[in-house]
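#lab-general

N.A. 3:47 PM
ok so I finally got the sequence cleaned up, no stray characters, all 391 residues accounted for. can someone with queue access submit it? mine expired

B.Y. 3:52 PM
send it over

N.A. 3:53 PM
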Amino acid sequence: MKVARRTAQAFASMVVLSLLMSASVFAYTTRMSHISSFASPPAAADASTTTTSETEHENAQVTQSTHTSQNEGQQGEHLLEFKLVNFTATAAGKGDSEVQINGTNVRVLIQVEHAIQSAQYRVDLVVSQTPTFIVSSAFCSGTLGNFVTSDEGEAEVKLSMILSTGTPFLGLVLCTNGIPALVSDPLTRQATITPRTNGSDSEETHQINAKQEDQDDESQIKTAEDTKQIPDVVQVSGSGSTITQLDPKFSVSVSRPSDNSLVVSISGANITGPRVLLISLTKDAGALASPGSLSVKFDGTQVAEASSASQIFSGTSASPPSFIVLLTSSGADLLVFVPHFSAHLIEMLAAAPAGAFAAEAPLLLAAFVALTALSAVAYMRRKRFAAPAAP
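B.Y. 4:20 PM
back already:
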């Protein structure tokens, strides 16, 4: 009886530990599924924010001008159109904007002219539960992204963001030097953000052959910057992104929809010949800084990886777009070859980080060790009690 009781106790303990281990595996799997999808960015301040403002814009026709794409044919896709007007009498510039909504994915197209020349702008996509909000410097953090204008005060910008489902009112605030300069007109329009039903948001990444940046690569990059073959440098870190304009004929924008994705647009008027865009990623930039697997798209088409930096810098207008990743002591440099110019969109997606396994590994290991030890004890007891009595 004692043998049977102890065997039953050991078996029950093994069952409990097996359930614990299964729960750990389930937690790991669930966590990985959340990481593999784009993380929702922080919500912008809404109408409940109490801030000081010079003016409050009213919107009496929020729902009158919401346009539906004529060729979409898919649920959850629609388009909001805005004018961009001066926030104050002394502000410069004007423009137009389109907010393209596809499920939870939001892409914002901005065109500005007569703005401040070669100026840095930060863009906030304001997500409000009411059709009005108080415009102030609180909306100058650049939740959507940032861009730099050309020497003619022009820019053609493409920014991306991911929103939670709902029916919020969306508006735009463009700031320079921490002060609102341009705002959307009407102030907001109501959007419908729904889960996508026409496929997955996930994209396939590809194993890349990242190379260690050597002195020859550094020399080529320095020469390209001096000759303006590299017209702009986009620097991305854990704290945000900045744009260094080397050639004022170009305008560049950058947005980061998630920790492992980046969207950069570059445009230039009356430009001849190819250029190279440099995106510098510091080690604290997350999965982007150490991409073992990567997807780079140029105007929506997958781009091939170049064999060397020399191939990037020696390309001609007849060469296809390409990219290369060079590992540096501070992170990584992504060089993208652009064969010709008007306006182009570069989308970068790194494989989702595997940090979730590191978080769950201790629990999995502890359960496994405990299960193994208990099994060994149960086996030894069973062997001892089952041994035949000595004659």
